[in-house]
Amino acid sequence: MKVAIEMGAAPGGAKVPLDLEELLATRLLVQGNSGSGKSHLLRRLLEQSAPWVQQCVIDPEGDFVTLADKFGHVVVDAQRTEAELTRIAGRIRQHRVSVVLNLEGLDVEQQMRGAAAFLNGMFDAERDFWYPVLVVVDEAQLFAPAVAGEVSDEARRTSLGAMTNLMCRGRKRGLAGVIATQRLAKLAKNVAAEASNFLMGRTFLDIDMARAADLLGMERRQAEMFRDLQRGNFVALGPAMSRRPLPVAIGAVETSARSVSPKLTPLPEAMEDAHELIFTAGPEEIQRPVRRPPPPAPTPTADIIAQLSRVVAEPVPEAQPVFPLIDETEREAAIAKVVKEIVEDPDAAFRSDSVLYQDFLVRCRIRRVQGEPLPLAAFRRRIAVAKSGVEGETAHSEPWLQALSLSSGLPEDVQGVFLIVAQAAVTSAPCPSDAALARAYGSHSARRARRLLAYFEEQGLVVVRTDFHGKRSVAFPDLGCETAPGDPDAPDHAATQQAAE
Protein backbone atom coordinates (compact mmCIF):
# COMPACT_ATOMS: atom_id res chain seq x y z
CA MET A 1 0.00 0.00 0.00
CA LYS A 2 1.38 3.39 -1.04
CA VAL A 3 0.93 6.17 1.53
CA ALA A 4 2.05 9.74 0.75
CA ILE A 5 2.24 12.22 3.60
CA GLU A 6 2.58 15.96 3.09
CA MET A 7 5.82 17.46 4.45
CA GLY A 8 5.37 21.04 3.22
CA ALA A 9 5.33 23.22 0.13
CA ALA A 10 7.74 23.93 -2.72
CA PRO A 11 8.60 27.55 -3.73
CA GLY A 12 5.70 27.65 -6.23
CA GLY A 13 3.21 26.56 -3.57
CA ALA A 14 2.94 22.95 -4.74
CA LYS A 15 2.66 20.35 -1.98
CA VAL A 16 5.70 18.17 -1.39
CA PRO A 17 4.66 14.57 -0.60
CA LEU A 18 6.81 11.94 1.05
CA ASP A 19 6.28 8.30 0.08
CA LEU A 20 6.18 6.59 3.48
CA GLU A 21 6.61 3.05 2.13
CA GLU A 22 9.68 4.14 0.13
CA LEU A 23 11.08 5.90 3.21
CA LEU A 24 10.84 2.66 5.23
CA ALA A 25 13.07 0.99 2.64
CA THR A 26 15.59 3.78 2.01
CA ARG A 27 16.01 5.71 5.33
CA LEU A 28 16.43 9.48 5.86
CA LEU A 29 19.21 11.86 6.96
CA VAL A 30 18.42 15.39 8.20
CA GLN A 31 21.13 18.03 8.71
CA GLY A 32 20.90 21.58 10.00
CA ASN A 33 22.58 23.88 12.49
CA SER A 34 20.95 24.54 15.84
CA GLY A 35 17.83 26.62 15.24
CA SER A 36 17.39 25.57 11.62
CA GLY A 37 14.14 23.66 12.32
CA LYS A 38 15.29 20.02 12.50
CA SER A 39 13.08 19.18 15.48
CA HIS A 40 10.13 20.90 13.76
CA LEU A 41 10.75 18.75 10.66
CA LEU A 42 10.93 15.53 12.68
CA ARG A 43 7.76 16.47 14.57
CA ARG A 44 5.94 17.10 11.24
CA LEU A 45 7.09 13.70 9.93
CA LEU A 46 6.03 11.91 13.13
CA GLU A 47 2.62 13.58 13.31
CA GLN A 48 1.78 12.92 9.67
CA SER A 49 2.90 9.27 9.74
CA ALA A 50 1.56 8.37 13.21
CA PRO A 51 -1.68 6.75 11.91
CA TRP A 52 0.21 4.60 9.40
CA VAL A 53 3.34 3.16 11.04
CA GLN A 54 4.72 2.29 14.46
CA GLN A 55 7.22 4.88 15.71
CA CYS A 56 10.16 4.93 18.10
CA VAL A 57 11.82 8.24 18.99
CA ILE A 58 15.26 8.41 20.63
CA ASP A 59 14.90 11.76 22.38
CA PRO A 60 18.00 13.10 24.22
CA GLU A 61 16.34 16.37 25.35
CA GLY A 62 12.78 15.23 26.14
CA ASP A 63 11.30 17.44 23.37
CA PHE A 64 9.05 14.78 21.84
CA VAL A 65 7.26 13.52 24.96
CA THR A 66 4.35 15.84 24.06
CA LEU A 67 3.43 13.38 21.29
CA ALA A 68 1.96 11.16 23.99
CA ASP A 69 -0.99 13.49 24.68
CA LYS A 70 -2.08 13.85 21.05
CA PHE A 71 -1.04 10.59 19.39
CA GLY A 72 -0.83 8.07 22.25
CA HIS A 73 2.92 7.47 22.31
CA VAL A 74 4.18 5.72 25.44
CA VAL A 75 7.02 7.63 27.16
CA VAL A 76 9.82 5.31 28.34
CA ASP A 77 12.03 6.92 30.99
CA ALA A 78 15.62 5.81 30.29
CA GLN A 79 16.65 5.97 33.95
CA ARG A 80 16.59 2.17 34.14
CA THR A 81 19.14 -0.61 33.81
CA GLU A 82 20.32 -1.58 30.34
CA ALA A 83 18.79 -5.04 30.75
CA GLU A 84 15.38 -3.49 31.52
CA LEU A 85 15.59 -1.21 28.46
CA THR A 86 16.46 -4.18 26.25
CA ARG A 87 13.50 -6.20 27.49
CA ILE A 88 11.13 -3.23 27.13
CA ALA A 89 12.28 -2.75 23.53
CA GLY A 90 11.52 -6.40 22.75
CA ARG A 91 8.00 -6.05 24.14
CA ILE A 92 7.51 -2.85 22.14
CA ARG A 93 8.19 -4.71 18.90
CA GLN A 94 5.95 -7.56 19.96
CA HIS A 95 2.94 -5.35 20.79
CA ARG A 96 3.59 -2.68 18.10
CA VAL A 97 3.36 0.32 20.43
CA SER A 98 4.76 3.74 19.43
CA VAL A 99 7.16 5.06 22.07
CA VAL A 100 9.42 7.97 22.98
CA LEU A 101 12.65 6.99 24.78
CA ASN A 102 13.23 10.00 27.06
CA LEU A 103 16.97 10.34 27.80
CA GLU A 104 16.62 13.73 29.53
CA GLY A 105 18.52 14.05 32.79
CA LEU A 106 21.26 11.54 31.91
CA ASP A 107 24.85 12.44 31.12
CA VAL A 108 26.22 11.79 27.64
CA GLU A 109 27.72 8.37 28.41
CA GLN A 110 24.54 7.18 30.13
CA GLN A 111 22.50 8.39 27.15
CA MET A 112 24.75 6.43 24.77
CA ARG A 113 24.48 3.25 26.84
CA GLY A 114 20.71 3.56 27.29
CA ALA A 115 20.04 4.24 23.60
CA ALA A 116 22.34 1.37 22.56
CA ALA A 117 20.61 -1.12 24.87
CA PHE A 118 17.18 0.00 23.59
CA LEU A 119 18.16 -0.17 19.89
CA ASN A 120 19.82 -3.57 20.39
CA GLY A 121 16.62 -4.86 21.99
CA MET A 122 14.59 -3.75 18.95
CA PHE A 123 17.20 -5.14 16.55
CA ASP A 124 17.35 -8.56 18.28
CA ALA A 125 13.58 -9.09 18.33
CA GLU A 126 12.13 -12.41 17.17
CA ARG A 127 11.55 -12.75 13.43
CA ASP A 128 7.80 -13.05 14.03
CA PHE A 129 7.79 -9.45 15.30
CA TRP A 130 9.69 -7.79 12.44
CA TYR A 131 6.94 -5.28 11.75
CA PRO A 132 7.89 -1.92 10.15
CA VAL A 133 9.02 0.69 12.67
CA LEU A 134 10.08 4.29 11.99
CA VAL A 135 13.08 4.85 14.31
CA VAL A 136 13.79 8.58 14.70
CA VAL A 137 17.10 9.54 16.37
CA ASP A 138 17.48 13.22 17.21
CA GLU A 139 21.01 14.61 17.71
CA ALA A 140 22.43 11.46 16.11
CA GLN A 141 26.00 12.78 16.39
CA LEU A 142 25.79 12.02 20.14
CA PHE A 143 25.16 8.31 19.51
CA ALA A 144 27.34 7.82 16.39
CA PRO A 145 30.26 10.25 16.83
CA ALA A 146 32.87 10.45 14.09
CA VAL A 147 35.74 10.74 16.60
CA ALA A 148 36.31 9.69 20.19
CA GLY A 149 35.25 12.19 22.84
CA GLU A 150 35.22 12.35 26.60
CA VAL A 151 33.15 9.17 27.01
CA SER A 152 34.72 5.75 27.48
CA ASP A 153 35.74 3.72 24.44
CA GLU A 154 33.40 0.90 25.44
CA ALA A 155 30.35 3.21 25.56
CA ARG A 156 31.27 4.74 22.20
CA ARG A 157 31.76 1.35 20.53
CA THR A 158 28.48 0.01 21.93
CA SER A 159 26.47 3.05 20.83
CA LEU A 160 28.13 3.25 17.42
CA GLY A 161 27.51 -0.46 16.86
CA ALA A 162 23.81 -0.08 17.66
CA MET A 163 23.47 2.88 15.26
CA THR A 164 25.36 1.00 12.55
CA ASN A 165 23.03 -1.98 12.94
CA LEU A 166 20.02 0.35 12.68
CA MET A 167 21.17 2.04 9.46
CA CYS A 168 23.03 -0.84 7.77
CA ARG A 169 21.13 -4.00 8.77
CA GLY A 170 17.86 -2.72 10.19
CA ARG A 171 15.87 -2.67 6.92
CA LYS A 172 15.45 -6.47 6.77
CA ARG A 173 14.18 -6.39 10.35
CA GLY A 174 11.63 -3.68 9.57
CA LEU A 175 13.62 -0.86 11.20
CA ALA A 176 13.74 2.37 9.16
CA GLY A 177 16.25 4.86 10.53
CA VAL A 178 15.59 8.62 10.43
CA ILE A 179 18.61 10.42 11.88
CA ALA A 180 19.07 14.14 12.46
CA THR A 181 22.38 15.87 13.15
CA GLN A 182 23.70 19.39 13.53
CA ARG A 183 26.84 18.71 11.52
CA LEU A 184 27.64 15.94 9.05
CA ALA A 185 31.31 16.21 10.02
CA LYS A 186 30.44 15.08 13.57
CA LEU A 187 28.48 12.01 12.38
CA ALA A 188 30.20 8.69 11.65
CA LYS A 189 30.46 8.22 7.89
CA ASN A 190 29.37 4.57 7.84
CA VAL A 191 26.10 5.61 9.54
CA ALA A 192 25.40 8.63 7.33
CA ALA A 193 26.28 6.78 4.12
CA GLU A 194 23.38 4.31 4.46
CA ALA A 195 20.67 6.98 4.01
CA SER A 196 19.21 7.42 0.51
CA ASN A 197 16.94 10.40 1.34
CA PHE A 198 18.24 13.77 2.51
CA LEU A 199 16.79 16.97 3.93
CA MET A 200 19.54 19.59 4.23
CA GLY A 201 18.88 22.76 6.25
CA ARG A 202 20.79 25.89 7.11
CA THR A 203 24.52 25.46 7.77
CA PHE A 204 27.45 27.86 7.73
CA LEU A 205 30.75 25.94 7.88
CA ASP A 206 32.44 25.35 4.51
CA ILE A 207 33.11 21.66 5.19
CA ASP A 208 29.43 21.00 6.04
CA MET A 209 28.15 22.97 3.05
CA ALA A 210 30.49 21.11 0.69
CA ARG A 211 29.52 17.71 2.08
CA ALA A 212 25.80 18.56 1.88
CA ALA A 213 26.24 19.65 -1.74
CA ASP A 214 28.05 16.40 -2.55
CA LEU A 215 25.26 14.30 -1.01
CA LEU A 216 22.63 16.18 -3.03
CA GLY A 217 24.62 15.92 -6.27
CA MET A 218 25.02 19.73 -6.50
CA GLU A 219 28.01 21.69 -7.73
CA ARG A 220 30.35 23.20 -5.19
CA ARG A 221 29.47 26.75 -6.24
CA GLN A 222 25.85 26.03 -5.34
CA ALA A 223 26.78 25.11 -1.75
CA GLU A 224 26.53 28.77 -0.68
CA MET A 225 22.73 28.49 -0.82
CA PHE A 226 22.70 26.57 2.49
CA ARG A 227 23.76 29.74 4.32
CA ASP A 228 20.69 31.59 3.03
CA LEU A 229 18.05 29.03 4.00
CA GLN A 230 15.43 30.33 6.42
CA ARG A 231 14.40 28.45 9.53
CA GLY A 232 12.14 25.54 8.61
CA ASN A 233 13.35 25.47 4.98
CA PHE A 234 15.25 22.45 3.67
CA VAL A 235 16.51 21.04 0.38
CA ALA A 236 15.07 17.56 -0.26
CA LEU A 237 16.46 14.73 -2.38
CA GLY A 238 15.77 11.01 -2.49
CA PRO A 239 13.48 8.33 -3.93
CA ALA A 240 10.88 9.00 -1.22
CA MET A 241 10.58 12.73 -2.09
CA SER A 242 12.25 14.00 -5.26
CA ARG A 243 14.75 12.79 -7.84
CA ARG A 244 16.22 16.30 -8.09
CA PRO A 245 17.16 18.75 -5.29
CA LEU A 246 13.90 20.41 -4.27
CA PRO A 247 13.55 23.32 -1.78
CA VAL A 248 10.71 22.71 0.66
CA ALA A 249 9.21 24.76 3.49
CA ILE A 250 8.09 22.39 6.26
CA GLY A 251 4.42 22.66 7.18
CA ALA A 252 2.83 23.40 10.53
CA VAL A 253 2.64 20.93 13.43
CA GLU A 254 -0.11 20.13 15.92
CA THR A 255 2.04 19.63 19.03
CA SER A 256 4.85 21.69 20.48
CA ALA A 257 8.07 20.96 22.30
CA ARG A 258 8.46 21.58 26.01
CA SER A 259 11.58 23.67 25.33
CA VAL A 260 11.38 26.58 22.89
CA SER A 261 13.88 29.05 21.50
CA PRO A 262 14.64 31.94 23.87
CA LYS A 263 12.69 35.16 23.27
CA LEU A 264 13.79 38.67 24.17
CA THR A 265 12.10 39.89 27.33
CA PRO A 266 12.31 43.54 28.53
CA LEU A 267 14.40 44.08 31.65
CA PRO A 268 12.61 45.23 34.81
CA GLU A 269 12.59 48.89 35.58
CA ALA A 270 15.61 50.24 37.43
CA MET A 271 15.27 49.77 41.17
CA GLU A 272 16.85 52.09 43.69
CA ASP A 273 17.45 49.29 46.19
CA ALA A 274 19.19 46.94 43.71
CA HIS A 275 22.42 47.10 45.74
CA GLU A 276 20.59 46.00 48.87
CA LEU A 277 18.81 43.17 47.04
CA ILE A 278 22.11 41.72 45.84
CA PHE A 279 24.27 42.03 48.94
CA THR A 280 21.71 41.52 51.71
CA ALA A 281 20.81 37.98 52.71
CA GLY A 282 17.14 37.12 52.48
CA PRO A 283 15.14 35.85 55.46
CA GLU A 284 15.06 32.30 54.06
CA GLU A 285 18.83 32.06 53.84
CA ILE A 286 20.62 30.38 56.72
CA GLN A 287 23.74 32.15 57.87
CA ARG A 288 26.36 29.93 59.37
CA PRO A 289 29.21 31.58 61.28
CA VAL A 290 32.68 30.81 60.05
CA ARG A 291 34.49 28.90 62.77
CA ARG A 292 38.20 28.46 62.55
CA PRO A 293 39.88 25.66 64.47
CA PRO A 294 41.96 26.85 67.45
CA PRO A 295 45.74 26.82 66.96
CA PRO A 296 47.57 23.76 68.36
CA ALA A 297 49.14 24.06 71.79
CA PRO A 298 52.92 24.62 71.67
CA THR A 299 55.09 21.59 72.39
CA PRO A 300 57.20 21.98 75.57
CA THR A 301 60.94 22.36 75.02
CA ALA A 302 61.69 19.38 77.30
CA ASP A 303 59.58 17.09 75.09
CA ILE A 304 61.38 18.24 71.94
CA ILE A 305 64.81 17.58 73.55
CA ALA A 306 63.64 14.14 74.72
CA GLN A 307 62.50 13.23 71.18
CA LEU A 308 65.80 14.35 69.63
CA SER A 309 67.88 12.44 72.15
CA ARG A 310 66.00 9.21 71.69
CA VAL A 311 68.33 6.69 69.96
CA VAL A 312 66.07 3.71 69.27
CA ALA A 313 62.76 4.51 67.58
CA GLU A 314 59.68 2.92 68.99
CA PRO A 315 58.35 0.02 66.90
CA VAL A 316 55.57 1.09 64.61
CA PRO A 317 52.49 -1.08 65.08
CA GLU A 318 51.55 -3.15 62.06
CA ALA A 319 48.92 -1.41 59.98
CA GLN A 320 45.59 -3.14 59.93
CA PRO A 321 43.84 -3.52 56.57
CA VAL A 322 41.04 -1.03 56.00
CA PHE A 323 38.91 -3.57 54.13
CA PRO A 324 38.44 -7.23 55.08
CA LEU A 325 40.64 -9.75 53.33
CA ILE A 326 39.11 -11.32 50.26
CA ASP A 327 38.59 -15.07 50.23
CA GLU A 328 39.60 -15.87 46.63
CA THR A 329 38.01 -19.32 46.73
CA GLU A 330 34.67 -17.94 47.88
CA ARG A 331 34.88 -15.08 45.35
CA GLU A 332 35.64 -17.48 42.47
CA ALA A 333 32.73 -19.71 43.44
CA ALA A 334 30.35 -16.73 43.54
CA ILE A 335 31.48 -15.51 40.11
CA ALA A 336 31.10 -19.00 38.65
CA LYS A 337 27.56 -19.24 40.07
CA VAL A 338 26.58 -15.87 38.55
CA VAL A 339 28.01 -16.83 35.14
CA LYS A 340 26.13 -20.14 35.26
CA GLU A 341 22.85 -18.34 36.03
CA ILE A 342 23.34 -16.03 33.04
CA VAL A 343 24.13 -18.92 30.67
CA GLU A 344 21.07 -20.86 31.86
CA ASP A 345 18.80 -17.89 31.05
CA PRO A 346 17.03 -18.89 27.78
CA ASP A 347 17.18 -15.30 26.48
CA ALA A 348 20.89 -14.82 27.20
CA ALA A 349 22.06 -16.44 23.96
CA PHE A 350 20.48 -13.69 21.85
CA ARG A 351 21.65 -10.67 23.85
CA SER A 352 24.76 -8.61 23.17
CA ASP A 353 27.87 -9.04 25.32
CA SER A 354 27.52 -5.50 26.71
CA VAL A 355 23.99 -6.20 27.96
CA LEU A 356 25.05 -9.52 29.53
CA TYR A 357 28.03 -7.81 31.15
CA GLN A 358 25.82 -5.19 32.81
CA ASP A 359 23.52 -7.98 34.05
CA PHE A 360 26.62 -9.78 35.42
CA LEU A 361 27.79 -6.68 37.32
CA VAL A 362 24.34 -6.15 38.85
CA ARG A 363 24.11 -9.80 39.98
CA CYS A 364 27.59 -9.57 41.53
CA ARG A 365 26.60 -6.47 43.49
CA ILE A 366 23.42 -8.17 44.71
CA ARG A 367 25.48 -11.14 45.99
CA ARG A 368 28.14 -8.77 47.41
CA VAL A 369 30.99 -10.38 45.47
CA GLN A 370 34.17 -8.81 46.85
CA GLY A 371 37.09 -7.45 44.87
CA GLU A 372 37.40 -5.72 41.54
CA PRO A 373 34.81 -6.80 38.93
CA LEU A 374 35.91 -8.92 35.99
CA PRO A 375 36.88 -6.88 32.91
CA LEU A 376 34.71 -7.31 29.82
CA ALA A 377 37.29 -9.48 27.98
CA ALA A 378 37.58 -11.90 30.91
CA PHE A 379 33.78 -12.02 31.23
CA ARG A 380 33.41 -12.97 27.54
CA ARG A 381 35.91 -15.78 28.05
CA ARG A 382 34.00 -17.05 31.12
CA ILE A 383 30.74 -17.05 29.16
CA ALA A 384 32.33 -18.97 26.26
CA VAL A 385 33.70 -21.66 28.62
CA ALA A 386 30.45 -21.86 30.59
CA LYS A 387 28.40 -22.47 27.43
CA SER A 388 30.31 -25.73 26.87
CA GLY A 389 28.94 -27.16 30.12
CA VAL A 390 32.15 -29.04 31.04
CA GLU A 391 32.29 -30.11 34.70
CA GLY A 392 34.01 -32.60 36.99
CA GLU A 393 37.06 -34.57 35.85
CA THR A 394 36.58 -33.58 32.21
CA ALA A 395 37.33 -29.95 33.08
CA HIS A 396 40.83 -30.97 34.29
CA SER A 397 41.63 -33.51 31.57
CA GLU A 398 44.53 -32.93 29.17
CA PRO A 399 42.42 -32.85 25.96
CA TRP A 400 40.07 -30.24 27.41
CA LEU A 401 42.93 -28.02 28.64
CA GLN A 402 44.44 -28.23 25.15
CA ALA A 403 41.05 -27.32 23.64
CA LEU A 404 40.95 -24.22 25.86
CA SER A 405 44.40 -23.28 24.61
CA LEU A 406 43.34 -23.68 20.96
CA SER A 407 40.19 -21.60 21.48
CA SER A 408 42.14 -18.65 22.90
CA GLY A 409 43.52 -17.93 19.42
CA LEU A 410 40.04 -17.59 17.86
CA PRO A 411 37.87 -14.45 17.75
CA GLU A 412 35.89 -13.91 20.96
CA ASP A 413 32.46 -14.32 19.35
CA VAL A 414 33.18 -17.87 18.05
CA GLN A 415 35.07 -19.31 21.05
CA GLY A 416 31.85 -20.54 22.67
CA VAL A 417 30.82 -22.48 19.54
CA PHE A 418 34.29 -24.07 19.25
CA LEU A 419 34.28 -25.17 22.89
CA ILE A 420 30.79 -26.72 22.61
CA VAL A 421 31.96 -28.92 19.73
CA ALA A 422 35.23 -29.67 21.55
CA GLN A 423 33.30 -30.73 24.65
CA ALA A 424 31.30 -33.20 22.57
CA ALA A 425 34.54 -34.60 21.14
CA VAL A 426 36.27 -34.91 24.53
CA THR A 427 33.26 -36.71 26.05
CA SER A 428 32.50 -38.71 22.83
CA ALA A 429 29.02 -37.19 22.72
CA PRO A 430 27.05 -36.77 19.46
CA CYS A 431 27.99 -33.77 17.36
CA PRO A 432 25.75 -30.77 18.26
CA SER A 433 23.05 -29.87 15.76
CA ASP A 434 23.03 -26.68 13.67
CA ALA A 435 20.29 -25.25 15.92
CA ALA A 436 22.40 -25.76 19.07
CA LEU A 437 25.47 -24.18 17.47
CA ALA A 438 23.43 -21.24 16.17
CA ARG A 439 22.03 -20.57 19.65
CA ALA A 440 25.55 -20.63 21.11
CA TYR A 441 26.53 -18.02 18.51
CA GLY A 442 23.50 -15.86 19.33
CA SER A 443 21.68 -16.47 16.06
CA HIS A 444 18.69 -18.35 14.71
CA SER A 445 20.41 -19.12 11.37
CA ALA A 446 21.44 -22.76 10.84
CA ARG A 447 23.39 -21.70 7.77
CA ARG A 448 25.60 -19.47 9.93
CA ALA A 449 26.35 -22.42 12.22
CA ARG A 450 27.51 -24.48 9.25
CA ARG A 451 29.72 -21.61 8.14
CA LEU A 452 31.36 -21.57 11.55
CA LEU A 453 32.27 -25.25 11.25
CA ALA A 454 33.68 -24.53 7.80
CA TYR A 455 35.71 -21.68 9.30
CA PHE A 456 37.17 -23.97 11.99
CA GLU A 457 38.07 -26.47 9.26
CA GLU A 458 39.79 -23.76 7.22
CA GLN A 459 41.90 -22.89 10.26
CA GLY A 460 43.07 -26.51 10.46
CA LEU A 461 41.47 -27.08 13.86
CA VAL A 462 38.82 -29.68 12.94
CA VAL A 463 37.84 -32.16 10.25
CA VAL A 464 34.11 -32.40 9.49
CA ARG A 465 32.72 -35.67 8.07
CA THR A 466 29.22 -36.73 7.06
CA ASP A 467 28.34 -40.45 6.75
CA PHE A 468 25.90 -42.14 4.37
CA HIS A 469 23.03 -41.64 6.82
CA GLY A 470 23.52 -37.87 6.91
CA LYS A 471 25.04 -37.97 10.39
CA ARG A 472 27.84 -35.48 11.07
CA SER A 473 30.95 -35.99 13.17
CA VAL A 474 33.79 -33.58 13.93
CA ALA A 475 37.36 -34.75 14.60
CA PHE A 476 40.01 -32.70 16.42
CA PRO A 477 43.48 -33.81 15.18
CA ASP A 478 45.32 -31.82 17.88
CA LEU A 479 43.22 -33.36 20.67
CA GLY A 480 43.15 -36.91 19.31
CA CYS A 481 39.41 -37.25 19.80
CA GLU A 482 36.21 -37.10 17.76
CA THR A 483 32.51 -36.54 18.37
CA ALA A 484 29.98 -39.30 17.89
CA PRO A 485 27.79 -38.97 14.77
CA GLY A 486 24.95 -36.50 15.28
CA ASP A 487 21.99 -35.28 13.27
CA PRO A 488 22.75 -31.71 12.05
CA ASP A 489 19.02 -31.02 11.54
CA ALA A 490 17.97 -32.09 15.04
CA PRO A 491 16.15 -29.49 17.19
CA ASP A 492 17.93 -27.68 20.00
CA HIS A 493 16.83 -29.78 22.99
CA ALA A 494 18.68 -27.58 25.50
CA ALA A 495 16.79 -24.47 24.39
CA THR A 496 13.48 -26.33 24.48
CA GLN A 497 14.16 -27.63 27.99
CA GLN A 498 15.16 -24.17 29.27
CA ALA A 499 12.01 -22.64 27.80
CA ALA A 500 9.87 -25.31 29.45
CA GLU A 501 11.51 -24.67 32.83
Structural description of this entry:
The chain has an eleven-stranded mixed β-sheet. The chain has a three-stranded antiparallel β-sheet with strand order 12-13-14, covered by helices on one side. It is of the alpha/beta class. The model has no long low-confidence stretch (mean pLDDT 83). Among the domains are: 4-250, P-loop containing nucleotide triphosphate hydrolases (Rossmann fold), CATH 3.40.50.300; 403-491, Arc Repressor Mutant, subunit A, CATH 1.10.10. 40% of the residues lie in helices and 14% in strands. The two termini are 43 Å apart.
Total beta strand runs = 14
Gyration radius, rounded:
31 Å
Tell me the number of helical segments per DSSP (H or I, 4 or more residues long): 18
Query: Strands of the largest sheet, in order across it?
Result: 2-1-11-10-9-3-8-7-4-6-5
The CATH class of the domain at 4-250 is: Alpha Beta
- Residues in helix, %: 25-40%
Secondary-structure-based class equals alpha/beta
The fold-level CATH name of the domain at 4-250 is Rossmann fold
Our measurement of the CA-to-CA distance between the termini, rounded to an integer number of angstroms, reads: 43 Å
Uncertain residue segments? none
Instruction: Look at the structure and name the CATH superfamily of the domain at 4-250.
Output: P-loop containing nucleotide triphosphate hydrolases
Main beta sheet, described?
11 strands, mixed
CATH architecture of the domain at 4-250: 3-Layer(aba) Sandwich
Average pLDDT, all residues: 83
Gross geometry: flat
Strand percentage lies at: 5-15%
Protein name: ATP-binding protein
Region (Disordered): 480-501
InterPro entries: AAA+_ATPase, ATPase_Atu1862_pred, HerA-like, HerA_central, P-loop_NTPase
Keywords: ATP-binding, Nucleotide-binding
